[in-house]
Specification:
The protein is mainly alpha-helical. It has a single domain (2-260), classed as Formate dehydrogenase/DMSO reductase fold (Up-down Bundle). 78% of the residues lie in helices and 0% in strands. The chain has helices at residues 2-26, 32-62, 64-69, 79-108, 110-140, 148-165, 178-191, 194-202, 205-218, 224-251. The chain is globular.
């Protein structure tokens, strides 16, 4: 259970950073802090992208029944899989270009740099959207199904959490997406299918969800020294909520006794 939460945490931060970090850089005035963040991004973009891809692969590998049932395996068997098959290589190439050419491009033309960062952010946002779609399919597995509008809203909630997590690597910066992630987390449990929601409520998951949402909602206004630890803890608790929702959803599939799965308290 904890390993799944850690993997989700890594996936959220690594994928979200591909959208939020370049977007933040493209809207930040050129100063010492922005230069420091750009140096970090040139060094960290490709390792983060690789970590996100490997983390997503390991999550699917740890949940083979759900991955097969939702046709995420093989990758080209489903619509989100085909989208990811196109976007993931493009995201990796963009991260590689940032690592190899970002510094020279920045010295040549700041406006061209900002345009490149916005393009990278748009590509990252598309990849995060596809990842949120695939993540919700993996969470549902063969478990209880909800209505299509609710499922779309769940994808939106997961996407908001991914984008919020992407701001964690920006040391010292006030997160802009954290509050949206907190609101999304508060909406997540009520949007789940009723049978799944009832089991999670009996397990007391709403308390973990509320604690995570509170941290995400207030982290922007915390002192600089407390901001990153509180942000990381809130995101890890959110990952535990989503991870447990996936475990219980799969346990509610026909022929499985959900009581065999440990509760999260």
């Amino acid at each position: 259970m904890l390993l799944d939460a850690l993997l989700l945490f890594v996936v959220f931060v690594a994928w979200g950073a591909q959208a939020t970090v370049p977007w933040r850089l493209s809207t930040t005035a050129a100063d010492g802090v922005a230069a420091s963040h750009r140096r970090f991004w040139r060094a960290g973009a490709l390792p983060l992208a690789l970590a996100g891809v490997l983390g997503a692969y390991e999550l699917a590998n740890r949940n083979p029944d759900a991955a097969i049932a939702t046709r995420l395996v093989p990758l080209l068997a489903s619509a989100p899989g085909r989208v990811l098959a196109v976007l993931v290589p493009a995201m990796l190439v963009a991260a590689l270009l940032v690592a190899l050419g970002g510094g020279r491009l920045g010295a040549a033309d700041e406006r061209l740099t900002a345009a490149g960062e916005r393009l990278t952010a748009a590509l990252g946002l598309a990849a995060c959207t596809a990842a949120a779609w695939a993540g919700e399919l993996l969470r549902a597995g063969e478990g209880p199904e909800g209505s299509e509008p609710r499922f779309l809203l769940l994808i939106g909630c997961r996407l908001a959490l991914i984008l919020a997590a992407g701001e964690l690597p920006l040391a010292g910066a006030r997160p802009r997406w954290a509050a949206a992630g907190g609101v999304a987390l508060l909406l997540y449990l009520p949007l789940l299918p009723a049978p799944l929601r009832a089991v999670l409520w009996d397990q007391g998951l709403q308390l973990t969800c509320a604690a995570a949402a509170l941290l995400l909602l207030v982290v922007r206004w915390l002192p600089r020294g407390l901001r990153r630890p509180a942000f990381a803890i809130g995101l890890l608790l959110a990952a535990m909520v989503l991870g447990q929702a996936g475990r219980v959803s799969q346990a509610l599939a026909p022929g499985v006794d959900y009581q065999e799965f440990p509760s999260l308290r």
